[in-house]
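Batch job 17 of 40 flagged for manual review because the log was empty.
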Amino acid sequence: MARIGILLPVYNSEPTLAEALDSLAAQTFTDWETWILDDGSTDATADLARAYQTRDPRFRYIPLPHRGIPPTLNEGLDLCDTPLVARMDGDDLCEPTRFEAQLALLAAQPHVGVVATQIRSFHTDGTPPGSGMERYVRWVNRLITPADHYRERYVESSVAHSSILAPRPVLAGGYRDLDWCEDYDLWLRLMQRGVRFAKVPEVLLAVRDEAGRISRNDYRYTQDALRRCKVDHLLDPEVGPLAGRRRILFWGAGRVGKRWLRELPSFGVTVEAAVDLHPRKIGRRIHDALIIPPDALADHWRRLDDPFLLIAVGARGARIEIREHLDAMGLHELDDYLFLA
C-alpha cells in the first residue's frame, strides 16, 4: 500500500494536540508521516510537537508564520511528497482503523478520488453537541456514494475536512485563500471537475465541536460566506449549473429561501417565480420574485427558454415531497433542478 502524508495544521493547539497525535500513532496502518504545520502558535504547541517528533520520526514539526489555514495547507502540500495525502485537525480524534479502512475503499473503488469517513461530534467536557451540529452529522453520515455527494454538493460540505484521504494529484492546485471556507470551495471545484467522492460507512473520526473552533468564529465559515461560495460555483462559466442562465425558477420562500431570493439578483440572476405552500405568500412578491403554488410551476417552466429550478427548503421531509412533485412533472434532478441550502 502507498505511503500516506497527513497534513495537520495547528494554531495554539496545546490543550488537544497530544490526543490527536496519539490517535494517529495508534493507527493499524503504519506507513505514514504527519506534517505538523504550526501556523505561528504562541502557546506550547511547538514544544509538544517537537517532543512527539523526537519519540517518533514519522511526526514532522514545521514552524511557519501565522497566515491562516489555506496558505498553511498549501505549504504542507508543497512539502509532502507521498502518493496519498490525508487531513487531520489538532483537536480531532481518529479511530485506529481509519486509514486501513480508507485504503481498502480506495483499492475497491479506484475510480474514487476523495475518500472520507463518517464522523461523530463531541465536547471535551462530555456535554452533548448542539442541535445544529447534530443535524449536520446526521446529514453528512447519510452521504456515502459518489452519487450522494454529487447530488447534495450545494447543500453543505458533504465531507468533514479532517476525514479525507486522496491521491496527491487530486489535490494539485491546492486551496484558494478567498472570502469563504477553503475546504468547501475545494470540494466544489473537484466535483465539478469530475472527481468522485465516497465515504467509508463507519464512524472513524471524532470532531471536537468547541466554542473556540475556527469554523464557529471565522466569518469565512458563516452561512453568508457559504452562499457566496455556492453562487461563485453555480455561475462558473464553464461548468456551473447556472452557466449561461440568468433567468431561473425557485422553490422556497421560507427562512432559507428568502436569503437566496434576496441575494441572487445581486449576482445578476433574476428569479421569475418562486414556489411556496404558504397561502398568505402566494400572489405576493418577495424580493421581486412572484410567489406561486406548486401546481403553477409547470406553466412558468414552459415560459422559459432554458428553464432551471433551484430549491432551498428547511422543513423536515420537504425534499422528498418536492422530488416526487418534480418527478411527476418529468423533471430530472441535476439536469433540471438542484437542491441547496
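Reviewer: the log was empty due to a logging misconfiguration, but the result itself is present. The longest strand covers residues 197-208. Unflagging and moving on to job 18.
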